[in-house]
Amino acid sequence: MDILSGVSGDSLKVLVWLSAIATGLLLCFWRPSRVDLAALGSVLVFTVVNIAAGVYVLSHLGDSRWGGGAEERLDAPSLADTPVVGQFLGPLDVLLDGVVEGVNEFTDFRASLPVAVEFLAAAGWALAVAVPLGLLALVVSYRDAQRRKAESARFNLQVEQLSTELDEIKRHLGYPNRG
Question: How far apart are CA 71 and CA 5, in angstroms?
Fold first, then answer.
């Protein structure tokens, strides 16, 4: 079952953009403090969906949505109907049908290739954008980890200070030290 059978090339481009935008918005709502990760996720979804669209186009070569069938398809003439020698030309008919079918498939491929390349090129550009976004996300994550590490060290120091003060209070009150 092909759920995209009624989707044209332009509609497929719109679906690619909508999926990337929806992913970015969902990630922004999920973690509003990390917009960098939302942007990276959105670009990566855009890349993957563009690759999938390119593969979809190439797997449906004869489809008229991509320009397949725009040129007239070739038909091999039947040599088996030739008087007198037709019965001997039957194997040549099979060979000629195979060659004509290959030419028709190549024509469909040639018609679909620009549409598929458009999707694959968009995926390539998105991947080129994803690299700096990934580096930005790494830098932000590193800085966030350093901040959390400093907070943890500050809390540990505060706990040590409070423990020391508690020990002094216990000693001042004469509380037996069990520890």
Answer: 21
CB-based contacts of 49, cutoff 8 Å, min separation 6: 15, 16, 19, 20
Query: 11: which residues sit within 8 A by CB, 6+ positions away?
Result: none
Q: What span, in angstroms and rounded, lies between the C-alpha atoms of 79 and 101? A: 16
Low-confidence ranges of the chain (pLDDT < 70): 68-70, 84-86, 177-179
Question: For residues 20 and 54, what is the distance between their CA atoms, to the nearest angstrom?
Answer: 16
Query: For residues 66 and 160, is the Cβ–Cβ distance under 8 A?
Result: no
Q: What is the CA radius of gyration of the chain?
A: 33
Residue 132 is predicted with a pLDDT of 96
Number of neighbours of residue 104 by Cβ within 10 angstroms: 19
pTM reported for the whole predicted model = 0.76
DSSP string, 71-109: SPPP-PPPSTTSTTTGGGGHHHHHHHHHHHHHHHHHHHH
Contact 40, 134 (CB under 8 A): yes
Q: Which residues have CB under 8 Å from 95's CB, separation 6+?
A: none
For 115-136, write each residue's pLDDT tens digit. Answer: 999 999 999 999 999 999 999 9
Identify the residue whose tokens are 């719109």: 14
